[in-house]
Specification:
The complex is a heterodimer.
Chain A: H1 2-21, H2 25-50, H3 54-80, H4 93-116, H5 125-141, H6 145-167, H7 172-200
Chain B: H1 2-33, H2 43-53, H3 64-83, H4 98-119, H5 123-154, H6 159-168, H7 176-192, H8 211-214, H9 220-245, H10 256-283, H11 292-312
Helix pairs in contact in B: 1-3, 1-9, 1-10, 2-9, 3-4, 3-9, 4-5, 5-6, 5-7, 5-11, 7-9, 7-11, 9-10
């Protein structure tokens, strides 16, 4: 059980790291889908192991929302967006180094937590926390609206993983509320982004300051 | 003693004879994955045989380095075959600290190959050498760090000791730090053996190639040796990966039965890794050269994290 949790959480973290590294938008969207699928599998595994049957429902709902619905909405944002020209001199090396520091920080911060719990999932808690920090990092360092949305979603995935690993999932009512929130947020953002693109012919944040008459 | 000697000879034979097969198998799997029939897995043997029968043409401007390099490459790989735990956990050169010797052997080969690429004075050779050196300089620290991360977890820097310790405690192999080291080592393996996201082993497209550019001037038996050595390097890296990160069924004893079991287990693991390699090579496009350092920086970060978590989780 410990091994399965570690493996799934680690692959989730790896997906988050790759989101930091990759530049192509469809590629990053696929990574997000992969991460969501891994988390759904993690939820199912924990449900089977701990006997919390309602977690299976949560896993299914999570899979529907994060693997099917949200990516479909985001794909509409990706497809219409003008392909960003390859930006020279904007290297991901520093970003990756920053991401490494964040993983380290999450280990240090979560040290007392992992020491205090005797759950078999304790070893993977820093990984989920690191994935959520990386999501926040993507959100903050992103240069366009799509990256902001994706960063937020990875952040949300990390928190879901943290709840799973730290407390075997939240009550089903809370989870349902969160899923609904995420869905609504993504739908609103999609509308906003499409509107921004119509106005500015770009979703680059730097260009939003330009006035259009 | 005879057991250890027999194990050493067996390892040499497995690496020397199995390396072209592994390479051919990867190529066949790759061809099947993209819907081609492709040559059979035995094709590299036929290629080597053909090259051995051909005349070797050597440019008159080259020095002795050009002629010595293929032998140095093959020799370093054969010595490395006695260091890496391939079919047995404790090969003849299984002393403490042999991980560093292994890296030195790999770098020695790379060093001579880079020199030979420059030696003929062609533009492509120089280009390939400069790229190879750049990649190697970024990849070597990660290899060392990843192996040190494992060594610190296992409490010994002897590769055989690491394999035995992990074989006793398979749960260690799925701890987050170990997985990070695995990811780092896998990425570096792709770079060191010239596989796809870093270098394309299947083309002669001059703008992208690294390894092929360096060996462009070689022909005949020299080329056969260089190709054989690079196949052995792939074999050694994959068996290192297999035995350090999937550390099950590597025998410590050197009885014939244990060695046979070890060989069968190794074949299974290598088959899985070769399939994974073929799958990656068909799904991933080659990176632009200026993004390769980013990839290697990422793998370095993973290896560094793996080392630091050892201290944090103590």
């Amino acid at each position: 059980m410990m091994a399965v949790c570690n493996l799934l959480a680690f692959l989730g973290l790896l997906a988050a790291l790759l989101v930091v590294w990759r530049q192509s938008r469809p590629g990053r969207l696929q990574l997000f889908v992969a991460q969501s699928a891994l988390l759904a599998a993690l939820a199912a595994a924990i449900a089977l192991y701990s006997g919390h049957r309602e977690l299976l429902v949560v896993a299914a709902a999570f899979a529907v929302v994060k693997v099917i619905v949200v990516p479909r909405v985001l794909r509409r944002v990706v497809v219409g967006a003008p392909v960003r020209p390859v930006a020279p001199g904007r290297s991901a090396g520093l970003k990756l180094l920053g991401a490494g520091v964040l993983v380290l920080v999450s280990y240090v911060v979560m040290l007392p937590v992992t020491a205090a719990t005797s759950l078999p999932t304790a070893g993977a808690i820093p990984l989920a926390f690191a994935a959520s920090l990386l999501g926040l990092f993507v959100c903050v360092s992103g240069r366009d609206a799509f990256t902001h949305i994706l960063g937020f979603l990875v952040f949300e995935n990390g928190i879901f993983g943290l709840a799973l690993l730290g407390a075997y999932g939240l009550p089903i009512l809370v989870e349902a509320g969160v899923f609904l929130d995420v869905l609504v947020i993504v739908l609103i953002m999609e509308g906003v982004v499409v509107q921004i693109r119509r106005e500015h012919a770009s979703i680059d944040v730097d260009r939003l300051r330009e006035l259009r008459g | 003693m005879t057991g250890a000697l027999g194990a050493g000879i067996l390892q040499l034979a497995v690496v020397a004879a199995g390396a072209p097969l592994l390479r051919g198998l990867t190529r066949t799997l790759k061809a099947r994955l993209v819907g081609r029939r492709g040559p059979g897995p035995l094709q590299p043997y036929r290629d080597l045989g053909k090259l051995l029968g051909k005349e070797a043409v050597v440019s008159s401007t080259t020095s002795w380095i050009f002629r010595v390099t293929p032998y140095v490459l093959a020799a370093t790989m054969l010595v490395a075959a006695l260091v890496v735990p391939v079919v047995v956990a404790r090969p003849p050169l299984g002393f403490a600290g042999n991980a560093i010797l292994l890296m030195a052997l790999f770098v020695l080969g790379t060093f001579f190959l880079a020199l030979a690429g420059l030696d003929a004075g062609s533009a492509f050779g120089g280009m390939g050498s400069s790229r190879e050196v750049a990649v190697a300089a970024l990849a070597e620290p990660t290899v060392i760090l990843a192996i040190f991360a494992l060594a610190m977890r296992a409490g010994t820097i002897d590769l055989g000791g690491v394999v035995e310790r992990l074989g006793d405690e398979p749960a260690l192999a799925l701890s987050p730090g170990h997985l990070m080291a695995f990811a780092a080592f896998f990425i570096v393996m792709l770079a060191e053996t010239g596989r796809l996201p870093v270098d394309n082993p299947a083309t002669h497209l001059e703008l992208t190639m690294i390894h092929e550019a360096m060996v462009l001037e070689y022909s005949g038996r020299y080329l056969a040796l260089v190709e054989w050595a690079s196949a052995m390097k792939l074999f050694l890296f994959l068996s290192l990966l297999a035995n350090l990160f999937l550390p099950w069924g590597v025998p410590s004893a050197t009885t014939p039965a244990a060695l046979g079991l070890g060989a069968v287990v190794l074949a299974g693991k290598l088959l899985v890794l070769a399939a994974a390699l073929a799958l990656i090579e068909t799904t991933v496009a080659k990176l632009r050269l200026f993004r390769v350092p980013e990839l290697l920086a990422g793998s370095f970060v993973l290896a560094l994290l793996s080392v630091t978590t050892v201290f944090l989780l103590r």
